[in-house]
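A reminder from the course coordinator: this example appears on the midterm review sheet, so study it carefully.

Given structure:
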């Protein structure tokens, strides 16, 4: 697949919402160990609202869809997670065309600028045990894959592998941002909840894009 059409992008976002919702208890459990225990609850709230919006509305342009999804997370999730995951979808929206599809490079640029926007907005960076420790490796893996492939299926599968490895690597880190930084050495050995959520999102993207390819 060299292009992703708006109907397929909507399936990817819906799949991500469902993945987060079904893993709420796990996300809550790991956040209770090194945070205030509300990450899973907040993520489920935001992605439940996103799921309903995606099921109730149809979109004709891919930028309109991604903008609406980001705004829904911002307004429904609340807290830092709402800002972070809303920014992930909104930060690079200028790279998504006002048309029925996006190509590989447009999608990679969308993710990359979304990641950069989170860094600027949150004054954080990879290595501090946050969701960026999954998002940055996902972006890097997609950029690397995009040098030799224009297949969106391959790109998103590479993104998931990067996100998963980044999440695993976050276990070795001591938290240096957010409320979890108060736990200091206690955070070592546990994954960052935001990195886990980000890995789940990319896992859903990889699964759903494969289904879209098979249905085409």
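Designed residues:
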């Amino acid at each position: 697949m060299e292009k992703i059409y708006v109907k397929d992008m909507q399936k990817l976002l819906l799949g991500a919402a469902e993945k987060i919702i079904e893993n709420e208890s796990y996300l809550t459990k790991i956040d209770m160990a090194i945070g205030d225990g509300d990450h899973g609850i907040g993520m489920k709230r935001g992605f439940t609202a996103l799921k309903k919006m995606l099921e109730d509305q149809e979109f004709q342009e891919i930028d309109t869809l991604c903008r609406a999804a980001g705004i829904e997370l911002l307004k429904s999730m609340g807290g830092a997670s709402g800002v972070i995951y809303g920014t992930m979808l909104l930060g690079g929206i200028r790279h998504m065309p006002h048309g029925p599809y996006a190509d590989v490079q447009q999608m990679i640029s969308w993710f990359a600028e979304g990641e950069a926007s989170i860094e600027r907005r949150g004054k954080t960076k990879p290595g501090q045990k946050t969701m960026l420790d999954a998002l940055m490796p996902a972006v890097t893996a997609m950029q690397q894959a995009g040098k030799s492939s224009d297949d969106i299926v391959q790109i998103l599968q590479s993104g998931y592998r990067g996100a998963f490895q980044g999440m695993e690597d976050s276990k070795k880190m001591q938290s240096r941002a957010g409320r979890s930084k108060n736990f200091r050495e206690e955070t070592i050995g546990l994954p960052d909840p935001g990195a886990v959520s980000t890995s789940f999102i990319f896992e859903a993207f990889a699964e759903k894009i494969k289904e879209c390819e098979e249905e085409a």
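The chain has one domain: 3-215. The two ends are 9 Å apart (CA to CA).
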